[in-house]
Specification:
The protein has 16 helices and 25 strands.
Length: about 550
């Protein structure tokens, strides 16, 4: 059984950063590693333990850097390899681990592999991709990842005189994972970055790496073998390294990606995010409980990563239509708030109307569940969105550090910014920024620091046994953790009304709870009803008398 140090990720608090939108260190209008390094003290004070970096590789940048043209170099606009290494060492000095995106489902069409492949059908690189001389038949149910933007999964290349396969945009030809040479290339990429000290990878589009690519020679006989191969290699080269999988499938299909703990250790919990917003929309805990009940139990030393948002759209394509509609009606009623006929392209704070009570409630749930919590840069201060930007860029707004020019993101002229800062409305940088919230004890930022601190200082979250509890009011979400007679009780009022809730402890007989966040006491023997203000949350512990 692994020692505790090899499962650090089970106790992690993960913070997702798009480097070019975070902090500009050289004044050219684009965030970079110099700026990110300067903000490590802030991230350390916030309390996060792991940074996940979105792609920063060399790229034509037609898809936010996911169109990689060189897996071994840094995009010059965010810095140099030395800048990256300085950041990595600085993070280590603050006790913060770093994981990076591993984008090996496809490359850019500008990648040297593809350029060689299209020019010579006898070159070794030809079989790095999936080709067809004739227009391939459209497989039943096959559709683009970007409906409405990409019509076909096959594109004709004039130089190659053949069609190549792509699940994403036509400038992102699909790699052929059935080719052993492609698998070796992937391991070389892993080896290169872990040699510098990264602690693991977020595996982009994991199901598509092993998917049927439409041609017999491109179908791996053992689809999950490549995941075991990557996972095993990572462990051999960096024991305790982690793979965080982007597996946006129904939970019963996602479960296979854990394997027996020998493939992917952490999976992003896409489904639960949808069910949580359904619970918020209906002010009813049943939806959240349903989302939790759908999750298979992960193998030992594996887990689900819980979040409210990532930096793509909030994808409702795999939940019941009525649940999707309930969320869209409340949180994305306008067409401009939606994308790809399936998703919401909004940030958490504006979805909840900037109501700090509701934002805190939402994050309290994320931080109180089994599995590592994930927050996206800026959500700790309640950053807004820019719906005038195309697609997913609406949520990738520059970080707001202060009320100074450009929100303190950059000293460049406004016209040179990689993306405009939010300047209008309640979420403008003058109203929402780090500097102001740092100085306000009751700010969202300081409440988030408290969540993170409590989460990290309560081993029961990772060592305890989750217990299902209930309340007599449908708006109250209740769950808990039990460990050696201690019971951690987590109560959330999803409603805009005050509630006096009767908790059903399911056979346990705790008598007295103390509040981990304040001076509240809950003496069950004296008063079995817990008073909850609108959108209130309680983290209560009963020590030594949980039974």
């Amino acid at each position: 059984m692994p020692n505790r140090s090899s499962t650090w990720y089970e106790e992690a608090v993960i913070y997702c950063i798009d480097v070019e939108k975070f902090a500009d260190g050289n004044g050219d209008g684009v965030g970079d590693f110099v700026g990110l390094t300067e903000k490590l003290a802030y991230l350390s004070e916030l309390g996060i333990t792991c940074i996940w970096l979105l792609p920063f590789y060399r790229s034509p940048d037609r898809d936010n850097g996911y169109d990689v043209s060189d897996f071994y170099s840094i995009n010059p606009k965010v810095g140099t390899l030395d800048d990256f290494l300085t950041f990595l060492h600085g993070a280590g000095e603050h006790g913060i681990r770093v994981i990076i995106d591993l984008v090996v489902n496809h490359t850019s069409d500008q990648h040297p592999w593809f350029q060689a492949a299209r020019r010579d059908d006898k070159a070794r690189y030809r079989d790095y991709y999936v080709w067809s001389a004739d227009p391939p038949p459209v497989a039943a149910g096959a559709k683009s990842i970007f409906p409405g933007e990409v019509d076909s999964l096959w594109t004709y290349d004039e130089v190659a005189r053949a069609y190549y396969f792509h699940n994403f945009y036509e400038f992102q030809p699909e790699l052929n994972a059935a080719n052993p040479q492609v698998r070796e290339e992937i391991l070389r990429i892993v080896d290169y970055w872990i040699a510098f000290g990264v602690s693991g990878f977020r595996l982009d589009a994991a199901p598509l790496i092993i998917a049927d690519k439409g041609l017999e020679h491109a179908n791996p006989r053992d689809p999950h073998g490549i995941l075991r191969q990557i996972g095993g290699y990572l462990q051999s080269r960096r024991p305790g390294g982690v793979l965080l999988g982007e597996v946006n499938l129904p939970p019963e299909a996602s479960d296979a990606f854990f394997g027996e703990g020998d493939q992917i250790q952490l999976l992003l919990n896409f489904m639960l995010a949808c069910y949580m917003f359904a619970g918020f929309a209906k002010e009813d805990a049943a939806a959240i409980n349903q989302g939790l009940s759908l999750l298979p139990e992960p193998p030992l030393n594996c887990g689900w990563v819980n979040f409210l948002r990532n930096l793509d759209e909030l994808d409702f394509s795999r939940v019941p239509p009525d649940l999707k509609q309930a969320v869209f009606d409340v949180f994305a009623p306008k067409k401009e708030m939606q994308v790809f006929e399936r998703g919401v392209r909004r940030r958490v704070a504006p979805m909840l109307n900037g109501d700090q009570r509701r934002i805190e409630l939402a994050f309290s749930i994320v931080f109180s569940l089994k599995g590592p919590p994930l927050i996206v840069y800026g959500d700790e201060i309640g950053i807004g969105e820019d719906l005038s930007q195309a697609g997913r860029n609406s949520v990738r707004v520059p970080m707001q550090w202060s009320g100074e020019r450009n929100g303190g993101f950059s000293t460049a002229n406004v016209g040179k910014l990689c993306q405009p800062v939010v300047t209008e409305g309640p979420f403008s940088y003058k109203n929402v920024n780090v500097a102001d919230q740092n100085n306000d004890a009751g700010s969202l930022l300081n409440r988030m620091k408290r969540f993170i601190s409590l989460r990290r200082n309560q081993p029961i979250f990772t060592k305890g046994r989750p217990v299902r509890l209930s309340a007599d009011d449908p708006a109250v979400l209740v769950h808990g953790f039990e460990d050696a007679g201690d019971l951690l009780l987590l109560v959330h009022n999803l409603a805009s009304r005050p509630i006096k809730a009767e908790i059903n402890f399911g056979g346990m007989q705790p008598r007295y709870f103390r509040d981990l966040m304040g001076d509240l006491e809950f003496d069950v023997a004296k008063n079995s009803r817990l008073e909850l203000e609108p959108y209130a949350y309680r983290w209560l512990i009963s020590e030594g008398n949980g039974q």
